[in-house]
Amino acid sequence: MHILCVQGIRAGVGASTVVANLARILRELNQDVLVFDLNPSNLLRLHFNMDWQNSSGWALNICEQKSWHDAGFQCEQGVHFLPFGQINYKNHQVLMSNYISENWLSDTLNSLDLLDESWIILNVPSELNALNIQALNLSDIILRIFEPSVACLSQLINSMQSSYIHNDNSLSNKSYYLMNKLMPSSEIDYEMILIFNKVLSNKTIPVNIHFDENIKEAFAHQTTVTLHAPNSASAKEFRTIAIWLISYFKRRSKNYVSE
Amino acid sequence: MKYKKNDLDGPCKNIGIEAGNYIEIKENEAVIKIKKKWPLVDQIISSGIRNFVNQHNKTT
Predict the structure, then answer these.
(1) Exposure check for chain A: N or C terminus, fewer CB within 10 A?
(2) What is the pLDDT of residues A161-177, one digit of tens each?
(3) How many domains does chain A have?
(4) Other Cβ atoms closer than 10 A to A235
(5) What is the pTM of this model?
């Protein structure tokens, strides 16, 4: 299995958008893909054409003493998806304290009947809790999303100095950074790219996602830009990232075999 | 992401940070120009290493 964690440096940088688009492209490339939403904001479902009123999801099922498996479904384009579900703060506290045991996520993923070459994409919120830490530890690669803003720079420098990820070499080594919402006409964006490249050195993915109205329009149509505007610049950028990921895992397995 | 910087080796070693395990943003003319233009960027970059060292001073 290829386990990919996607996490925003801070909320609102577009991590869910990246998850939905990568999942759809990987599926287009004949990969078997399961998307597991670990973000209580429960927004990812809207990229997969779920009704806004539909509050179902794995976390809600657990809180209502139902099987979490039943929350999963297959989207029209063939991606398997487990939405988080709409739960309130109190239920989230109960979920975390009563149901999420130390190995809950690995036990859950192992219980799924997935092919060896399957992709599991975990949508992880920027805030850390016991479940998100399990996700980061289980992943083969962590894709950290940021936008070229001073707020993201502040968050990044803070996290490099004190966060869970940067205090653990194994997590730090498998973390890569993807710039989203880049506006070519913005002077400050270009200057921030220079700063981010200085800070992140060789840990940035060699493709940036440009700001694109098509992405916002796609979301309003409850779909992804790769379906809504397949020839748009951002759709092409998402395809390039998906290919980069496939080659990352190929290189990884080749190195593993040669070792 | 983590750079070796010789002039910080001494202070960092004193507070138990291994060589190379701290952040340095290598400054060139472009970075200096950006720092002058955007005061918050200047603050974040300039205080990056200092805060890191201070935090370790407090916890060790």
Answers:
(1) C
(2) 666 676 677 888 899 99
(3) 1
(4) 22
(5) 0.88
User: Is A161–B52 a contact, with Cβ atoms under 8 angstroms apart?
Assistant: yes
Asked if B1 lies within 8 A of A200 by C-beta distance, the reply is yes
Instruction: For chain A, say whether B32 makes contact (Cβ under 8 Å).
Output: no
Indicate whether A21 pLDDT > 80: yes
Contacts of A192 in chain B (CB under 8 A): 41
Are the Cβ atoms of A195 and B1 closer than 8 angstroms?
no
**Average pLDDT over every residue of A26-34:** 96
Strands (E), chain A: 2-8, 33-37, 73-74, 80-82, 119-124, 141-146, 175-179
Task: Establish whether this prediction's ipTM goes over 0.90.
Answer: no
Substitution target in B34, B37, B46 with the highest count of A β-carbons within 10 Å is: B34
